[in-house]
């Protein structure tokens, strides 16, 4: 029953459409201090999909030894949404990996409380861009968007500005960076805005985080059990290292 409701919600989600509008932005994404990849944002009509490359490149400080081995091939990650939602939250459907299982996750993301500074501008790929600062799930971020592409969209789960985001990054970090390398005003007809993901288990973002962090706690407990008696390990389990440090359902979350 739950699975049917999930697909019904997903189907209704894609029934809306607007006049023709097409944009493709290719971003260079610095995921961590050692790893980078590409992410492609596609906008057509009212549909939005962002696809993260399956190929991760490591710099001289990182090797494939830093990646936990898996028996399954690396696959692309999808972030699916709509342009116009008419509210302060937006529904995202994305693919997320936990251990060796990939899930199809429904996430309701609150719009960041953006502060736009019209006096701070720069050119990106020939587009006039304006600076905006905000808080995204506990992380301070700085974005540059262009009104010349008047669509409230960006890479990953970013949105809420009156133009496409061409550069966005977490402040005071040399990673969690997305910067546009190419903008096209057409979308390849082969791009599927409703990819076949029916084989993946369907869960909510809250369920996904509880599951993922529960597995991390078990792995840490197993590691500690195999260490010599008296070994002290600094526990940062209450601090999430990624961009999403807090969530809307948690009391610590503040706009």
Chart the SSEs and their pairings.
Elements: H1 2-13, E1 22-30, E2 35-44, E3 47-52, E4 57-58, E5 77-82, E6 89-98, E7 101-110, E8 115-124, E9 127-136, E10 139-146, E11 164-170, E12 177-184, E13 202-204, H2 205-225
Parallel strand pairs: 7-13
Antiparallel strand pairs: 1-2, 1-12, 2-3, 2-4, 3-5, 5-6, 6-7, 8-9, 9-10, 10-11, 11-12
Summarize the structure.
It is built from two helices and 13 strands.
Strand content: 35-45%
What is the total tally of β strands?
13
Structural class: mainly beta
Low-confidence stretches: 11-19, 62-73
> Residue share in helices?
10-25%
- CA(first)-CA(last) distance: 35 Å
The tally of helices reads 2
Which shape, going by the Cα principal axes?
globular
What is the H-and-E element order?
HEEEEEEEEEEEEEH
Overall average pLDDT:
84
- Rg estimate, integer Å: 19 Å
Largest sheet: 13 strands, mixed
What does this structure look like?
The protein is mainly beta. It has a domain at 2-110 and 174-225. The protein has 2 helices and 13 strands; from the N terminus they run αβββββββββββββα. The longest helix has 21 residues, at 205-225. The model is unreliable at 11-19 and 62-73 (pLDDT under 50).
Note the main attributes of this structure.
single chain; 255 residues; mainly beta; 13-stranded mixed beta sheet; 13% helix
